[in-house]
Design a protein that fits this description.
6 strands; alpha+beta; 3-stranded antiparallel β-sheet; 204 residues
Length: 204
């Protein structure tokens, strides 16, 4: 059990992106990587959740400054909120630029209407969004998810896991009301999770 716990810890620690329970399970259960065990049974997603809970309990008991959190449909190491100002200084040079109001409005439309085409976005906003779409794609907050079946088959856009990370969401069902997005973004400038946790991926 201790070996398995260390393996789960190492996999999550080494990943640059949040890992889902299925991803962790598949890595561990892969035949050639199957860990030594007295049992031939494979690890389940519930087993992994229990291991993560046990690891977090250990981190808490020894006063560690980090935990494994659930975010963007996966699990990732994160620093506790009381250390936000210190970690913020570390990543000061990499701090995020604030999204403009037009970018926020466009992002909100995509988040709540996805998949959605650029003509549909422009019909809602009443302005050209070429530059904003390009910016949001460069920031990896949105991605191309297909083509519409309408005339010209325009590209369809949807949000990404980076979008979930940016706003500190586990999944899209946790989307706030559109009017709350700008407020959340302002809070995220100084610390992505000023009231929660700081992600430990170097893109704070």
């Amino acid at each position: 059990m201790e070996n398995l716990k260390s393996i789960v810890e190492a996999i999550i620690f080494a990943s640059d992106t949040p890992l889902s329970l299925k991803q962790i399970k598949d890595i561990i259960n892969e035949p050639q990587r199957k860990i030594p065990s007295n049992s031939d049974s494979k690890i389940s997603e519930d087993d992994i959740k229990k291991i993560i809970a046990s690891l977090n309990q250990e981190y808490s008991e020894r006063g560690s400054a980090f935990r494994i959190i659930e975010i963007a449909e996966g699990y990732q190491f994160a620093t506790l909120p009381e250390f936000a100002k210190w970690v913020g200084r570390l990543f000061k040079e990499k701090s995020k630029k604030k999204l403009s109001q037009p970018a926020l409005e466009t992002l909100a439309i995509i988040a709540y209407k996805q998949p959605i085409s650029k003509p549909e976005i422009e019909a809602i906003r009443g302005v050209n969004v070429d530059h904003i779409i390009k910016t949001l794609l460069e920031k990896r907050l949105i991605t191309i998810v297909g083509r519409a079946e309408t005339l010209g088959r325009p590209l369809l856009y949807g949000t990404t896991k980076e979008f979930l990370k940016y706003f500190g969401l586990k999944n899209l069902s946790e989307l706030p009301k559109p009017s709350e997005i700008e407020e959340i973004t302002k809070e995220s400038e100084n610390s992505i999770f000023e009231n929660g946790v700081i992600q430990n991926d170097g893109e704070k």
